[in-house]
Write a structure and sequence with these properties.
mainly alpha
Length: about 140
């Protein structure tokens, strides 16, 4: 059973014809991978301004390149983008601890959320139209 799960995890998951499965998968990349790795990075003392980028690069290199071995470069880029955005959303509030300026914290988090929602909308639109011409 472990081998079957491992084999499934190593397959690209672009879901070119199913926007709902794609969106769920990318939300998982952001929340289940990006979020916890960002918290580990913040706890380790990594500067909050680069935690999201470092998490995304580490995920891309560790999982997409070394383990999945770039089976689908567009899917790899897509997944790493969502991990990076999820890590950024999670780590951003720590830039404002103690929260001296709640408005700045909310604006920064809102900006990253809007970027992530735009990326999700782009992927959904692509799948609804049936395009297969690039990442996201």
């Amino acid at each position: 059973m472990i081998r079957a799960i491992w084999a499934y995890l190593r397959q690209p998951d672009a879901y070119p014809d199913d926007w709902y499965r794609w969106m769920g998968g990318q939300a998982g990349h952001a929340a289940i991978i990006g979020g916890p790795l960002a918290l580990i990075g913040v706890a380790a003392g990594i500067w909050v301004g680069i935690v999201g980028t470092l998490v995304g690069l580490a995920y891309w290199l560790g999982w997409e390149v070394l383990i999945q071995r770039g089976a689908d470069w567009r899917d790899s880029l897509d997944d790493a983008t969502h991990v990076t955005l999820g890590a950024s959303i999670t780590s951003l509030p720590f830039a404002f601890v103690p929260p001296a300026d709640h408005k700045a914290a909310a604006a920064a988090m809102g900006a990253v959320w809007l970027i992530w929602l735009a990326v999700l909308a782009s992927g959904i639109r692509k799948r609804l139209k049936g395009d297969d011409d690039g990442p996201i």
